[in-house]
Amino acid sequence: xxxxxxxxxxxxxxxxxxxxxxxxxxxxxxxxxxxxxxxxxxxxxxxxxxxxxxxxxxxxxxxxxxxxxxxxxxxxxxxxxxxxxxxxxxxxxxxxxxxxxxxxxxxxxxxxxxxxxxxxxxxxxxxxxxxxxxxxxxxxxxxxxxxxxxxxxxxxxxxxxxxxxxxxxxxxxxxxxxxx
Length: 180
Hints:
Keywords: Hydrolase. GO terms for molecular function: hydrolase activity. It comes from Sediminicola luteus. The protein has a six-stranded parallel beta sheet, sandwiched between helices. It is globular, with a radius of gyration of 15 Å. It has a single domain (about 1-180), classed as Isochorismatase-like (Rossmann fold). It contains five helices and six strands. By secondary structure, it is α/β, with parallel strands linked by helices.
């Protein structure tokens, strides 16, 4: 089973004083650890950036569109623009994954309850096997829930979903490294 690491929307515009994220440094560290391991195994690291061209936010190549400086990204990583919460929507992601024979996605990024969630749901309906990196996604506080509660809730939801042909699991970075 060919594997790929997806890094969703870890962009400067999502990590501002007005939009603080839960455990950002830990999430970035875990993503960096996994990216290094995936590269060593010659598996793709797919960096996904929201392209809000025309919206005034996340305009391609603007400062808020840029990835966090603390992410250890490489020129050989695969870079994909996305245009909605679901990374598969009108992007070239599925084509890239199919050409590489990828059937197992390890999903990380921001925001748990928006782009990460909708991309996971979409990947499942496309019969990918999905491993959610339990400690590799983040979000901010919401009106009725803390960011930690949102993250805990979605990790629970994903662990209890009915599997599709591909299946889904939620594993910590440490447990993923043990199984690669």
